[in-house]
């Protein structure tokens, strides 16, 4: 039961941060492109790389930390379901080139961010 509470609290924090990021991105760049979702997916993947690489070298019980941060906070923060909906919206608006750019930028950026986060932690430690 304690593990579930860690995940739920972390998820609430992550979802709140995602919402604030979307608001900020819309205010800064406007609503014509899903910059907020793109930002949370790439930043979340980078942070996931940092977290997992950081926890990998630790001895002891890191299960609670992993559940709270990886499953909870980052799970609530990243938004691949929102990503899919944003793609569908761009597609249905007839902006197919922009829709495919969004997919490419999201996937390549997210994968690069995971490796960058892992590299950062490994190069420091």
Describe this protein's structure.
The chain has 125 residues and is mostly helical. It has one domain (2-124). Helix content is 86%, strand content 0%. It contains 5 helices and no strands. It has helices at residues 2-29, 35-56, 63-77, 80-92, 96-124. α1 runs antiparallel to α2, α1 (2-29) packs parallel to α3 and α2 runs antiparallel to α3. The radius of gyration is 16 Å and the shape is globular. It starts with a helix and ends with a helix. The model has no long low-confidence stretch (mean pLDDT 93).
- What is the overall silhouette? globular
What is the number of domains? 1
Strand content: under 5%
Q: From the alpha-carbon coordinates, what is the Rg to the nearest angstrom? A: 16 Å
The secondary structure category is mainly alpha
- Unreliable segments of 5+ consecutive residues: none
- Helix and strand succession? HHHHH
Overall mean pLDDT: 93
**Largest beta-sheet details:** none
Topology:
Elements: H1 2-29, H2 35-56, H3 63-77, H4 80-92, H5 96-124
Task: Produce a short descriptive summary.
This protein has 125 residues and is mainly alpha-helical.
Keyphrases for this structure?
single chain; about 120 residues; mainly alpha; globular; about 0% strand; 5 helices
